Amino acid sequence: MPRTSLPSYRHHKATGQAVVTLNGEDVYLGRHGTRASRSEYDRLIGEWLAAGRTLPRRGRADVLTVMELVNAFRKAGDCPTTQADVYKSVMRFMVRLYVRTPVSEFGPLALTRQVL
């Protein structure tokens, strides 16, 4: 049986994110080198293999994910230094657990469930 390789987990230098190319489409996985991005890669590759090496059916393109929201917030960068550290730790937690979750499905209860 011929051995075929899996698409690589790569570093997208311009954004600092991990990326994998599946069927010609780049899929961003979160910050490169993190446990969360590696877990997202494993999950996505598993779905890709289960779907016969085709892209898994994804949500509507106009749905904003937690990762996209966090990236937009980071780019804004208009918060005082004292608050920035608090925001960074919360955003790190959000991305690790909810990287692909639509913002419409995420809220304060999602955070409290993880903390308790």
Descriptive account of the structure:
The chain is an alpha+beta fold and about 120 residues long. It has 4 helices and 3 strands. The protein has helices at about 35-50, 65-75, 80-100, 110-115; strands at about 10, 15-20, 25-30. The chain has a 3-stranded antiparallel β-sheet, with helices on one face. The termini are far apart. About 15% of the residues are buried.
Q: What distinguishing features does this structure have?
A:
three-stranded antiparallel sheet; 116 residues; 4 helices; single chain; 46% helix; alpha+beta
C-alpha-based Rg, rounded: 16 Å
Oligomer category: single chain
Global shape: globular
Give average pLDDT, whole number.
79
Order of helices and strands: EEEHHHH
What summary fits the major beta sheet?
3 strands, antiparallel
How many runs of DSSP E, i.e. beta strands? 3
SSE layout and pairings?
Blueprint: E1 10-12, E2 17-22, E3 25-31, H1 35-50, H2 66-76, H3 81-98, H4 108-115
Antiparallel strand pairs: 1-2, 2-3
Write a brief structural summary.
The protein is α+β, with helices and mostly antiparallel strands and 116 residues long. 46% of the residues lie in helices and 14% in strands. The model has no long low-confidence stretch (mean pLDDT 79).
